[in-house]
Fold this protein.
Amino acid sequence: MYADFIFGHKGTTFISKMQALAQIITKIVDFFYRPFSKYIPRQLFRYGACGGGNMVLDWVLYFLLYNFVVGHELVYIHLPFSFQFLPFTSFCLTPHVMTLLIVFPITLFTGFWLNKYVTFTQSSLRGYKQLWRYILIVIVNLLVNYLGLKLLVEVCGIYPTPSKMIITIATVIISFFGQKYFSFKSDKV
């Protein structure tokens, strides 16, 4: 009913297609879960599978957009006339940062969708509250990444790639528990 009000009849079709897609993804993930069922909980496996899939999507989109859309050139952004009060009227983004700015919102929402409809399906919270909480956890993880890289690379002198790997382990743990007990918390025990 709510979807009909917001999206009309076509919105209901879209939502039902998205729910069907979520069910297909869940069945595929659960099929591969069988050999691991004695060792890890189903929700943790779904979280890992969805997170891994979203990470691969991020890598593929980044590669395609960086190489074939943004290119290897600097991107100049000129602000509209209404922003002429600022001390600058344009700025320049490196191609890798511009690509990140395009890809990040896409994988943010695909990650949210996978967590909401495949991993943490028992949440009692409303969708908009889940989304804002999910974004908050993502921001916390961005800060942990930034501060962790600064600490491990610049203070401890560890190479960037191993530092990133260590930080990724920390952010995956933070993210799982943050999503489970904050973004998609459930009243069920």
Residues 122-189 form one domain. Strands lie at 75-78, 90-93. Residues 1-6 have pLDDT under 50 and may be disordered.
